[in-house]
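Researcher: We're teaching a course module on how sequence relates to structure. For the next exercise, students receive a sequence and then see the predicted structure as tokens, so they can try to spot secondary structure elements on their own. Here is the exercise chain.
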Amino acid sequence: MSQQWGSGGGWGGGGYRPQQQPGWQPAWSGGPGAPPPRRRQNPLQRVLMVMVSLAVLAIVGWVITSFSTGGSSNDVAYQNDNYQPPPPDKDPPPLPEPQTYSEARALVSQNPFYAQTAPIPVRCDTTPISDIDAQSDAQLKSHFEDLMGCLMRVWNPPVTAAKWTLVRPTVTIYSTSITTKCGKSGINAFYCGADQQVYFSNKLAEGVPAVKKTRYGPDLVMAHEFGHALQARTGILISAKALGQQSGDESTDLQYSRNLETQADCFSGMYLRAVSESQKIKQADVPDIEATYVAIGDDTLSGKPNIVGNHGLAASRLYWGKVGLGTSEVGKCNTFTASPRLTR
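Model: And here is the predicted structure for the students to work with:
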């Protein structure tokens, strides 16, 4: 699916004065409908005023190192099992923001989050769904709300170890269109940085049939969107958008967008690896999972093999999916220091 950027105003808050440094000349402005700032705002904060959504990307590849053995779950020493996920946060604290472009560059490339390791194995007792069309909106919401709890169990340890704060998003199910603080979106699945919540269209499989080819498809989609929540809560998201816009160069801006998207794929792969035991993921599931990733590459969707898009080619989806599925080291998902040819 294509990524949409527009004047999705409504982003308020802020409250500190940025440290002025050479080159610190914000080139963007808030979109129409944005409320006046209560206090002098950090220019980087305004980036989120033009963020409509970080759309769903498929997750490709499979290099997971441990599959379900079919044995009793009582025999597994699950990590972080005493953790009780918090309820969905409808009023989350403001997202962390860099105060300078120099700090923004450090947050995307040298973030303390990259030094952490995700726990494995982690328990997730949800039952995966494949046929979205067969589920009511209430069933979808219940399933994905439970999934957010599983994602919190995997990701809270490395996020808090890096001295960041993770919050549990709410999940909103909609049909063909929805208007949020990030603007209007059609059939999609997305994380909205303006309210820090996740949205999922019950018509998603109509545009992305591959999502229904594996019973893990919908969960992979939402794990990707939670990957954007991780970026937002660690300062990576707003920093990357600021740097892309500050460059004044479309190709550079697209590169930062692809870095965000492929990193979210990598994070979701790490999640799948962490819960593979409790979710009974088998080697036989691999081909369909890979097909889902490939189906959402920019080249696959457009039919243009050399397209320069904002999500990345199918080969990039495949590569970073494999990276995530083969590691518990968050730093392996640092797409911002990787060769650009790996995020085309």
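Model: If you want an answer key for the exercise: DSSP finds nine helices and six strands in the chain. The first strand starts at residue 54 and ends at 55.
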